[in-house]
Amino acid sequence: MMHLFMFFNVSTVEDARTLINYRIMFHVEIWMIIINLLHTLFFLRVTLNIKQYHRNWTNIQAFLYIQYSLHGLTWLAQRLIIICRLTEDNVELDNCLALITSLIRTTCIFCSFYILLILTIERVFATFFLESYETVRKQILSFSLIILLVVLSVLSALFVHYFNGVFSNMLIFLVILINITAAWLNNVIYEVNRKFNQTAQTHNKYSLGRRYQISENLKNWKMIRIPILTIAILNSILAAAMCISKIFTTNFTVIIIDFIILMYTFIIPQITMRCSPLWRKEVQRSKQRLFSTSKVFSEPAEIQRPRIEVCNVFGKRLRTTQDVSEHFDNLQKMWEDNKF
């Protein structure tokens, strides 16, 4: 038998005044969900438009916002159904519909729980495939990791619906442990890249491609370390709240978890934006587009995207891909011959 998980039980509300208070609360919650959905879709657009991170990281991050949106739509459907039931004499909810929405929401929540593990695996590949990770995009990696994320989340959602007791609490405790371990592993990855960088400075055995990837890994770590820590903390708080809600199954605990999720989906994009220069510029640009009184929008000079040009040693711009490739081949040959 499958149990409902994180679902508001209308039939347990006996007091009429309490029912009215819940109805008012749900109307407010619906508007908050809609605002949060628009906020999430906006940052999904920013993620897809701005090439701040490696394509694999961007793909995984975009999927995170897609599942936020799916969770928000399912959550909205739950609230609308419950409000409709509250206005009728029969407050019983169709079990099949309740189970479907509960499964979808729980799957999306476990996607958020496991996302830090998936992002950490991506950083491991970026660290140990220094030679070709940037030149060969390896987008199959991000798609494979997303599939793994979905499979883990679906299995976990089914597990907590089937086992509504100690076993599901053990799984949620495991989620907390995974997030703490993933956050620690990201610091280990940083130390590994830092040692690679020190070796590259003292020994001339690394190619230009390796040196570039090491510097990119270090630069990206400085931008993602705070979002990673934030995800780990919020995931642990949410998992602990879910564990408590399974022990004390009340409508009030469900509403508390809903509030935590609302804050979660709002805070993560904001923290990521604060740590990403290109994201900040894109958000500023989008705000000016939305609130500009002029019909024709002209991009301010201070936030225009920089044009990157590759020049040879004489300062002449290299115009074709072949020229650029030949130039870097020559630099590589000079590096190996002269060992400077």
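[next item in queue]
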Amino acid sequence: MSLSFTHKQADRGFLARILRLGLKISGVHNGDLRVDTSVSVPAQSVVIGAIIAPRVEVRGLVRGDIFAREIIVHAGGQVWGDIYTRACQVFLGGHVRGRLNTLDEADFSLADMPAMFLESGDGDGEMPASPSPPTAIPEAPSPQLILIHRLENEAATALAGRAELEQAFEQKLAQKAGDAVAEVFTLRHELQATRADLQTTHQSLQETRLDLAARESELAAETGLRTQLEADLSRSQAEHAAAAQALNDQQEATDLLRQQKAVLESDWRQTLEELRQMTERAHNLESAMQASLLHSAEQEEALLRWQELAEVTESQAAELQHALQAAQLELEKQTTLAATLREERAELRRQLTQTRAERDALAQAEEAQAAAEAALAELQQLYARAQGERERLRLERDEMQGQLALQEETFATLTDLRASQKDVTQRYEALRAQRDDLETQLETRQAELAQLRTRLQEAEAAREELVAAAARAADLQAALARQEDLEAALATATTQANESVDLLVWYKASLQVTQQDLAEREQSLARSQAKNAGLLAQLEERARLVDKWKTNVSRLTELLYAAERRAKKLEAGLAQYKEAAQLESDRLAAELRQSQAQRNASEQEANVLHQSVAAQGERLAWLQTTLVERDLALEKLQATFDEQKRSLYSVRQLATARIRELEQELALAQRQLKDLTQWLERKKTANKQQPTSNN
């Protein structure tokens, strides 16, 4: 590498530091470059000054003229100056602001470079070598020589001023331009960094805003969910309160039904007591009738055919014994059946309990409420029906009381009849003489007595059926007690029959005496039998009414039990519903607390995001303020640079004008000097010719 200068003080130190083989400019270079190797100006590099080299590649900025065989301006490269070259290539994106001059190979020589590229001398005012003075110069200064020296001094002064002015101008221009371009590039780099930071901040702010919007949407969703949960909780509480109110109403209705049931049970017990009293009265009537019949039998036992009566009585006793055995068998069967029914009832209760448990587990609150309403309506219907039955039973009781009064009258009549029979017995004792006629009538009376016994057996059978039905409804043991009473009565009747055997002879003796009186009493006895038949019919009717009443009471009791079971089932269902509602309320409360905790966390996170966004907003505002300040500073610097450029341009114009004036003065001085030299030569020639002629 070689380095040549046209002036001995042209930035030797700076050029010696930056020039090397294959020169590559880095950063900002202020000054001219003249090398014999290729020069590369990379991107973001600045050269302020002229470049003289065989080959120049420009990717950055060159403020000055370029003199080279080959010049390449790449994309992004800028040349602010004239170009002198043999071959120039400008790519798309490259800029050249100046004139393009073409040189030949003969014109291109580093030794013959124009002086305009080498204006970095020290301006010591050295003048080009002037023509040597004539050989013979007078020793005494002549006016022409003084004028020549003066002109030479003025020309040297002008050249020195021009060199100094150009050097100062170029140095100042290069310094100002380099500082301005460097500051512009620095500001541009800072501006790009600020814009990148601003864009990053914008992106971060946008992401933060999106995240904040998502958080706000999640918070809104959680708020909606919390509102919905609160509404569900309120609705559940309302349903729970309604269910509790319904339970209270049902409990009140159940208490009312229980009270009504207690009233009905008390009425039922009272009615049962009245029925028992009526049964006792009927039994007393039957006993009275049996006593009357026994008394009639005592009268008939005076007949000669008492043996047959005894046999008949024994046969009846045997039949009663068989009937008792059949009743005992029936009782055993009924007991077995009752045990079987109890077992089946227990099994059904277990199945019913299991079914209730399964159904209660599967039943919903609405079904329970509907069932409660239906059960309440049914209970109301049952209560109405029970009221109707109660009213009907009250009417029947009144009717039975009337009939009992009638039966009491009948019993009084029977008592009178019994008293009459006693009178008849007394008269019968007095009328023993009429025994023969009484035997005939006794046979007739025996036939009637057989009929009465048949009716009595039927009445006994009906009574036994009544007792059996009543015992099946309440307890079968009562029938056994009744049968024992019947056996006792039968034993009493047998004893009385045995006792009556002794009286038979006496009756036979007095039978003929009482035949006439007995004929008179037959009609009364027929009327009594008719009354007894009517009483038996009434007793049978009362027995049917009692059975019907017992059936109604049993049915009403079953309905009450069913109502109680339904009420218990409703209570169990309502308890389960309460428990489920409590669990649901606890679950909703837990979800509400969890949602509230999540909401608090989301609010805290949103507050953190808001603070971050506020901080980023402040950072963004500061960056925007800094960017605006940098823009203002850049604009101010650009204005200062433009102003300096204009001032430099004006100074350059003034300097150019002054240089032109100095050049014109120099040219004028040179012409004058040339004329003076010619004049001096002519004068010298003339002076030489003059001595010759003088010689």
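[queue empty]
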